[in-house]
Amino acid sequence: MRIGYTLMCEQSGARALVEHAASAERAGFDFEVISDHYFPWLVEQGHAPYAWSVLGAVSQVTERVDLMTYVTCPTMRYHPAVVAQKAATVQELSNGRFTLGLGAGENLNEHVVGRGWPPVNVRHEMLIEAVDVISALFDGGHVNHAGKHFRVDSAKLWDLPATRVPIGVAVSGSQSVQLFAPRSEVMISTEPKAELSQEWDRVSGGKKSRKVGQLPVCFDTDRDAAVARAHEQFRWFAGGWKVNSELPGPAGFAGATQFVRPEDVAASIPCGSDVAPIVDAVREFRDAGYTDLALVQIGEKHQRAFLEFATSELLPALRTL
User: Fold this and answer.
1) Which one from 32, 106, 129, 300 is the annotated catalytic residue?
2) Where do the domains of the chain lie, and which CATH numbers do they carry?
3) pLDDT in tens, 150-164
4) Which of 268, 93, 121, 304 is nearest to 192 (CA)?
5) Is the pLDDT of residue 26 over 80?
6) Is the peptide bond before 61 cis (omega within 30 degrees of 0)?
7) DSSP states of 164-232 as a string?
């Protein structure tokens, strides 16, 4: 299993994220993923820079790590033809290190363009169409498309990278696996469910695909402080994606999580400076068939301490898995 580092746009500004990216590569992480938000989940997080600008800068301060959106929505804030252009550009800038991670989106971020928020089945329809448009553009040549949700008029990627951009899609259950495994090379999910990995491989015709997960942790030498910070900034995590995708803003997340207790958060997020709980949580993803796992360190001011901890203790322990 490869271990990655998450560039969290919701908790850090653009310059800080670029610095974290360079530091995480030096620390020994294998890859880096970046979130693409217009809003933070909670006011306490306090940031939301434009992920694609940050990616361009990150591609120039790193040399080895793979890069990936985790994830971007190509259906409402962005037209899929524009997403294809952005992805091709990052692939060129990074010398072939980029994977385009896509998802059906969240109301939190997509409502800002004033198009409303469609039900999940419609969002899946839109994502299917968007993935097909992006794939066609990655094939090269001019693309015309007249679909239910999108139109494309003679689009072409004039700077087509030598290495085709791999496409990953976020899935949460059997329906999304059935829809997107045939259309993408990489499975993305946040829960260590072996059934997702197994079904993905079956639907993909038996080929072994990359499967990328994500795990929040909250490192601090003071465990009580770590639990308090995780509760303050990551209690939104308790709602699950079916709920989280529907809420329209930080006030909604604050209201929905007002009764989530610090001990509830600590039960699902490893907190403190003990390596063992993190290793145990990573093992769950490994045993579920995941090939890649990106860690999220909660709290902007604690990134440097976490990266030092990762270099000296955490990554060596995880390599033993």
Assistant:
1) 106
2) 2-221+274-319 (3.20.20.30)
3) 999 999 999 999 999
4) 268
5) yes
6) no
7) PPPEEEE--SHHHHHHHGGG-SEEE-SS--HHHHHHHHHHTTT---EEEEEEEEB--SSHHHHHHHHHH
Tens-place pLDDT, residues 212-247: 999 999 999 999 999 999 999 999 987 777 889 999
Look up residue 107 and give its two tokens: 């109301």
Burial group, residue 249, by CB count within 10 angstroms (0-12, 13-18, 19+): middle
Sorted by sequence, the CB contacts under 8 Å of residue 122 that are 6+ apart come out as none
Give 67-99 pLDDT, tens digit per residue.
999 999 999 999 999 999 999 999 999 999 999
Cα–Cα distance, 303 to 14 (Å, whole number): 14
Active site residue 149: no
CA 58 to chain centroid: 16
- Per the annotation, the verdict on 106 as an active-site residue is yes
Prediction pTM value: 0.97
* Closest alpha carbon to 257 in 12, 30, 44: 44
Catalytic residue among 20, 25, 32, 37: 37
